[in-house]
Structures are given as structure tokens and as C-alpha cells.
């Protein structure tokens, strides 16, 4: 997979692809369905994705809390794992947001990227103030000889699978159900930062990972699986929240204790998959009560994870 972040300087080797359009946050089963449909429709061209960073919502609603299911580099890797050969990650800034629907198709898709065919969902909107719809898209693509596939959303008994639905499941404390729609457990990926080492004093040293732009799921304690940079997967128990017993007043963070593990992880990038919510965030009477509960949490997580 090759990541392109400047649509104005695309090499000839990356032109003439078939491109799926969208934000692809989470690269969930619905996104995979779109990619597979496009691949089957046009197997004669390399598969690509046209997406954006930051997410347009970040520009238009900066007051919103972080909501991303995955960060851009993780998204690009996930798309590559689905057979996408080129990811065109367009910088979405104020200037780009003012681009008309006509210019998006003519300047970006046709002249900039030189795509041969595009695919999107029926609700795809584009251009300044989202004035372009799929009818307008087809009308603008046709003079360039670019084909269009409109792909119905993949749905289950709960309705169409979408990033917003997965976000809601995570915020409500259902990582297992979110995993079904993603096609894999949801993960938070980030570098291990130095903390106050209070977990070590409690007998459960933790790796501390900032949430940054990730969605904050339901606060509480989770059974987790941690993927190390070398590919090893270590079971553990994770906490997401503000540590009310300690009352440090800091923003929510992810802390994960890796079972039977004693290596230096500072500065390394970990991927922490949330498998099951064990309990909600709770304030305890003191550190002894907290330590006893952590031991119970760890035992429950080991049981769930077969560790």
C-alpha cells in the first residue's frame, strides 16, 4: 500500500485506479463490503481509496470531543490489509472545504488523481456545503469517461453498519458488539508515555497511552489484548478513565497491565484491543480497596482471555 498525501502531485504509477470514496473511519465490515464490490466490478485496475484527514467533522465542529475510531496511519494500514494499493489521503482544510462539487470531480478526481472508476454509498455528499449528491457525481464524472458504482450499505438485523453506530456501541460499553461490526476487536494505538508509576506501587505496573484523537469509550476496566511492535500479542487488563480513587484531576487515559510481562515499553507504540468491559469506573474508599479490586479484575480478565 502506498499513501499519498498531496493530490496535486500523483505519480503516473498511481493513476488509472478504481477508487472508493469516503472517510473509512474504523475500516469496518461495511467499508470492506464497499471495497470488495468495487474490486469485483473492476478487477482490471488497481484498487484505491480517496479519503480525508482530518475528518471533515473536526473542521466544522471543533468543539466536539475526539471521536475517531482509528488514527490516519492505522486506517491506511488497515486499508492496505484489505488489498488497497493506493490511499489518497486528502488534507481537509478550510480551503479544500470551499471547493465546489464541480471542482472536486474535475480538479481532484479526474485531473489530480486520474481515476478510472469510483464507488461510494448512496448517501455520499461532496463539495462546498455538501451540495453534490450521487446524481450530480454521475453527471460530472461522465464527460471524463469515469464510471460510477453506487453500493448499498451492508446491514444486519440492527440496520446499516456504520462508524457512528460502532462509536455508540463503544460509548455504551459493548466492545463485543462493536467488534462484530468492525470485523475485529476495537483497538487504541499509541506510544507508551511516562506516568506516575502508581500502578507499580499497587503491584500492577501499567503502560500509559494517551487517547489523543481516539473516541473515549465507556469508562471502566476491560479485558484486553496488547499487540507489541514485534507482533507479539500479550493478554492484559486495561482501565480507561480519570482514576477517581486517586483523584488526580487529569484527563481520561488508557492504562494497561500486561500479564506475566516485565519489559521496558516506554516510547514504543502499542495497539490495545478492548475485548470485554468488566466493570464501570468506580471510586474506592482507599488504595487497599482499589488494589484488591484490581486483583479481582485481573483474575476475571485472565479467565475471559484464557490467560
UniProtKB/TrEMBL annotation:
Keywords: ATP-binding, FAD, Flavoprotein, FMN, Kinase, Multifunctional enzyme, Nucleotide-binding, Nucleotidyltransferase, Transferase. InterPro entries: FAD_synthase (IPR015864), Riboflavin_kinase (IPR023468), Riboflavin_kinase_bac (IPR002606), Riboflavin_kinase_bac/euk (IPR015865), Riboflavin_kinase_dom_sf (IPR023465), Rossmann-like_a/b/a_fold (IPR014729). GO terms for molecular function: ATP binding; FMN adenylyltransferase activity; riboflavin kinase activity. Residues 181-306 form the Riboflavin kinase domain. It holds the Pfam family Flavokinase. It catalyses: FMN + ATP + H(+) = FAD + diphosphate; riboflavin + ATP = FMN + ADP + H(+). Its EC number is 2.7.1.26, 2.7.7.2. It is an enzyme of class 2 (transferase). Pathway: Cofactor biosynthesis; FMN biosynthesis; FMN from riboflavin (ATP route): step 1/1; Cofactor biosynthesis; FAD biosynthesis; FAD from FMN: step 1/1. The keyword Transcription regulation does not apply. GO terms for biological process: FAD biosynthetic process; FMN biosynthetic process; riboflavin biosynthetic process. It comes from the Bacteria. Catalyzes the phosphorylation of riboflavin to FMN followed by the adenylation of FMN to FAD. Belongs to the ribF family. This is Riboflavin biosynthesis protein.
